[in-house]
Design goal:
Number of helices: 9
CATH architecture: Alpha-Beta Barrel
Mean pLDDT: 93
Helix content: 25-40%
Radius of gyration: 20 Å
Number of domains: 1
Largest sheet: 9 strands, parallel
Strand content: 25-35%
Length: 377
Amino acid sequence: MTDQIKDVILSSSVNSGNAVTVAFDGETIASVISGPSTGTSGLRLAAGYIDVHNHGAVGIDVNEADTDGLIEIAAFLARHGVTAWLPTLVPDSDENYRRVIEAIDRLMAIQSDMPIAQAVGVHYEGVFANEKMCGALRPEFFKRFTGGEAAALPRLKSGVHMTTFAPEVEGGIELVRELKRLGWIASIGHTRADIETLNAAFSAGASHVTHFFNAMTGIHHRDVGVAGWALTTAGVTFDIIADGLHVNPKMLDLACRAKSPENVLLISDSVAPTGLGDGVFELWGENISVTNGRTQNERGSIAGSVITMHDAVRRMLSLGFSTSEVEQMASANPAKLLSLDAQMGAVEASKRADLVIRDENNDIVRVLVGGREVDLG
């Protein structure tokens, strides 16, 4: 375990031509001072990435993980610039939900002393989803909402609770109201809802959309679909998988510019094979092939990604988005969605010392989690 850095000044990074000096007080940023650069380091200092949709990595699936496995995932994420994350569950049995929630609880009780990505909650993806838009999810575990199912979902002792749902399911609008009453982030996804239903869900409190374009109806000039609704409705935000496979790079560019970077989050949607290269892997009860970085399950559906958040950052930079825009999509906006923006998501005094430093080639050269140095290996 790496000791926490105490009262150390970091001054080697140059942002927009200025040298940035950051002083730490334990795990918190004590001060940030910007001034003229006297060197040519070419380094870029930014807030650590926050991944709100992550199913696993290095051969470990969140649905199957114990606390030690979650720590391995979190260590991998930290090496790739992620300083906070939501372990994300696919539909499963209530018994397994309870087991994994207990494992995440244990992780959150011990992680603060570790230089690993910090779990800040849990994301249930697709518990209440449209079977016709299931993607790689397992519809045999989908639930109907009749009143008590949301309250019965296993909860963490503390932290963020998020779920992706389809508002057109039976009782879907009442489900949104119940989720909001219980303090959940209700995100629309795995859906083919019509405009009236989407508007009703938005009015009830669902204002975010999961993995934009994927597992939802697309845009047609006579039918805007879920994607068109999200693009054209003020107050709606979305997250998107920037791997160039889930969404064509030109459409990725178009959608993020049309919505504007201040309303877009980058996610990895990574699955257990991430970090292992191409091959065939068992995942969610079936074989998943990874070929040239593209996943595919036995039903022919794409099954999550094998990118990191840093890969997504690189992709967006390659499309011409500015460094500040990309950092907003990777850090500030996820923090805002999770209502954690007072604590993280920006390099500012009083926020956590969660930092990522990139060189002139946009390679990660240093990561700090709560002021603790991550061993990049």
